[in-house]
Each structure stands twice: as C-alpha cells, then as structure tokens.
From TrEMBL:
InterPro entries per the UniProt record, alphabetical: MOB_kinase_act_fam, MOB_kinase_act_sf
One of the record's GO molecular function terms: kinase activity
Protein name (Swiss-Prot/TrEMBL): MOB3C kinase
Domain of life per record: Eukaryota
Keyword field: Kinase, Metal-binding, Transferase, Zinc
Species whose genome carries this gene: Leptocoma aspasia
Pfam families per UniProt: Mob1_phocein (PF03637)
Residues that hold Zn(2+) according to the record: C83, C88, H165, H170
C-alpha cells in the first residue's frame, strides 16, 4: 500500500505545481544531492539538517526552501481532492487558528479565504519568489540579498500552515491513503530544519505542539 500511495503522491497529475528543479552542475545542485544522500542514508534527521562544514548558510537554506516547497506541494496535491470550498471554507488549523492571506499585490489587507484558495495563492506566491533571481540568485558569485533569510522565514512560516491544516483537518485522508509515514517524515525533517536555524517564531508552531 505504501508503494502504491507514494506512486500516487508522486503522480504528475497530483502535483499541485510543477516541481522547481536545481540545475545540474551548479553548486546548489551538488548541495541538494548531498542533502538527499544523507536523508536516504537513514541518518538521524537532527543530524541531516546541520550545515555541512565549509558550506554557506544561505545556500543551504535556499536548497531546503525549494525542496520543502516541492515536497509540501506534492503532499497538498494528494490531499487537494479532500480539501474543497465546501469542506474547508476557512483556511484554519482547528477552531483556534485561522490564517488570512495577505500579499503586496491583490490582497493588501489580511483577507479570509477558503483553504483551497489560500493554498493556491500561497504556492503561486512562493513560486514567484523562488524564481526571482534578485531573491534566489542561481548564478555563481551573485550574492544573496540582505533580506534573504527574512523572506525565507515568511515562506517557511506559511508552508508550516499547510502542515497545520493537513494534519488537523485531513489526517484521516492521509491515513486512508497510507501516506502517514511519508507525511510524518517530511514534517519531522521540516521541523528539525526550522528549529536548527531558528527560522520560524515559536508561536507559529503552537497548533502542532502536541505532535
């Protein structure tokens, strides 16, 4: 069942957005391969997220932000048929937490959206940022902007909300699809990463604190 489910999870039509790829031959591609290799080696996830000696922290963060975007995108893509305007008219994490959408273009004030609308806005917004060379430079020798880690904090904080919503509102669907182990591993990896580099305000983590 697990293999079948992962086939579903990685099914092209299920992907919420096309995957963002690292260009082979680039330093970031090498870092990505290094990170994936330690992930597959069965090392403790707390050790996997640590910055390898001699590597730049911004490169390491950039690689993980893009990778988490791809993976969370896939997780939500498999859940999206269960997450509808009717089932989830508000983007929330249980009764206590409601997330409103704000960006600098269409929604200048925090706005109530349904969960599917919120997810759509979120994935478009992240995709736009990671494809922006001024924020995520891909050419060697081009420095990261001063506000790079701030931008990443905002991206990761919002991606964390996808886990909150999926775990609190769609956990039965995760279990029925046999995707529990996959989602849990992705969540743990994400959690250890943001804790290692203090990338999310601890108050944002409260909805899943019992996990």
């Amino acid at each position: 069942a697990m293999a079948l489910c992962l086939k579903q999870v990685f099914n092209k039509d299920k992907t919420f957005r096309p995957r963002k790829k690292f260009e082979p031959g680039t330093q970031r591609f090498e870092l990505y391969k290094k990170a994936q290799a330690s992930l597959k080696s069965g090392l403790d996830l707390k050790a996997v997220v640590q910055l390898p000696p001699g590597e730049s922290i911004n490169d390491w963060i950039a690689v993980h932000v893009v990778d988490f975007f791809n993976r969370i995108n896939l997780i939500y893509g498999t859940m999206s048929e269960f997450c509808t305007e009717r089932s989830c008219p508000i983007m929330s994490g249980g009764l206590k937490y409601e997330y409103r959408w704000q960006d600098d273009s269409k929604y200048k004030k925090p706005t109530k959206l349904s969960a599917p609308q919120y997810m759509c806005m979120l994935m478009d917004w992240i995709e736009m940022l990671i494809n922006n060379e001024d924020i995520f430079p891909t050419r060697i020798g081009v420095p990261f902007p001063k506000q790079f880690q701030q931008v990443c904090t905002k991206i990761l904080t919002r991606l964390f909300r996808v886990f909150v919503h999926v775990y609190i509102h769609h956990f039965d669907s995760i279990i029925s699809m046999g995707a529990e182990a996959h989602v849990n591993t992705c969540y743990k990896h994400f959690y250890y990463f943001i804790r290692e580099f203090s990338l999310i305000d601890h108050r944002e983590l409260e909805p899943l604190v019992r996990m």
